[in-house]
Amino acid sequence: MMIVSDGSRGAQTFIEQVLTQRTTDVHVIHADTRSSAMSPEERRAYDTDIPLIDPVAVADAEALMAARILAVVVEPTRFGLPSSVKGWIDRTLAPGVAFRLDERTNRMKPGLTHLTRLVMVEVGDGSGDSRGARRIVTRAVRVACRPTIRVRSFSHRRLTAATTRLATW
Amino acid sequence: MVTTTVWWCHPLADSFTAAVAATVANTAAAHGPTDTIDMYRDTHVPGGGDLLVCVHPTWWSAEPAAALQRYEALTGHPPRYRSLMTVSTHGSPRWVNMAEGRNARRNARRNIAPLIGAERSLWVAMYAMDRADADARAAHMRSASTRVNRELTRLSQH
């Protein structure tokens, strides 16, 4: 299981709770430790045969390809998903990882078909734009997954249930 | 006379987004003072005025992270504008963006416009950019220019 968080205090506390119940097979990424903005070099590489050039992004992508569950744990901001996690999505879910473009039709083909569950967990006090944050994960990222993937989201009021589920799935 | 700020975001200075921003800025300059700010390379932020035009691609149904970073930094002392226009491009078709929830558009209307005090939030978008030809891109530039021209004319009359 891969957990991607915004590094907020609430997210870190939640992840610590999950790790007390699930000690193996968990790969945690705090997106605030990564660069958010895609660099000009990364954008130029995006359209080439080697779309990921940052070693950290390459390692994150490899870990994602080995995971069965992707869980995103964030405290939504006024603008929805925090820029740190959006930056991780922009820079890691590149062609060849999250999708590929069909050469003939140029249509997107899903690349995250190995994932069985996509989970969104909202921490904090609920003052941010939860719906905006949730939609990016459960609807936009879902497009890169297989159609039958199980998608769940947990609000800040259901963190106990989220902890239990993530520990047992 | 109306004042405009063109605030654009793309990693590449020679991108289509940069070209759209330059076209929009040229159109706005005919109506009054126009400030063009590159979110990637300029450190200053919009200072307020009549029309704020945000130009950026839509990635994963939302603004690029660099744009979100700049928006998050605005919350302390947001500039005041009468109107907000967002000009964006989507790699995927319109129906895919509908399914994804059109988050960038929603964010502009529900979050950014109220923050800066804008009465209106306008959305100018090009879809299926991955399969677009030169004619489609030129049409998007014309559309953005026309909408900016129309909005600035309206603002100058009110």
How would you describe the overall organization of this protein?
The complex is a heterodimer of chains A (169) and B (158). By secondary structure, chain A is of the alpha/beta class. Chain A is built from six helices and seven strands. Chain A has a single domain, classed as 3-Layer(aba) Sandwich (Rossmann fold), CATH 3.40.50.360. Chain A has a five-stranded parallel β-sheet with strand order 2-1-3-6-7, with helices on both faces. Chain A has a two-stranded antiparallel ribbon with strand order 4-5. In chain A, helix 1 links the parallel strand 1 and strand 2. The longest helix of chain A has 13 residues. Chain A starts with a strand and ends with a helix. Chain B has a five-stranded parallel β-sheet, with helices on both faces. In chain B, helix 1 packs parallel to helix 5. Chain B starts with a strand and ends with a helix. Chains A and B meet through helix 2, helix 4 and helix 5 of A and helix 2, helix 3 and helix 4 of B.
Terminal-residue CA separation of chain A: 9 Å
SS strand fraction of chain A: 15-25%
What is the rounded Rg of chain B?
A: 14 Å
> Please, what is the average pLDDT of chain A?
94
Domains of chain A, number = 1
Radius of gyration of chain A: 16 Å
Q: How does the overall form of chain A come out from the CA principal axes? A: globular
Our count of domains of chain B comes out at 1
CATH third-tier fold name of chain B: Rossmann fold
Number of helices of chain A: 6
Q: What is the chains' assembly state?
A: heterodimer
Strand order of the main beta sheet of chain B, please?
A: 2-1-3-4-5
Q: What is the chain-wise order of helices and strands of chain B?
A: EHEEHEHHEH
Unreliable runs of chain A: none
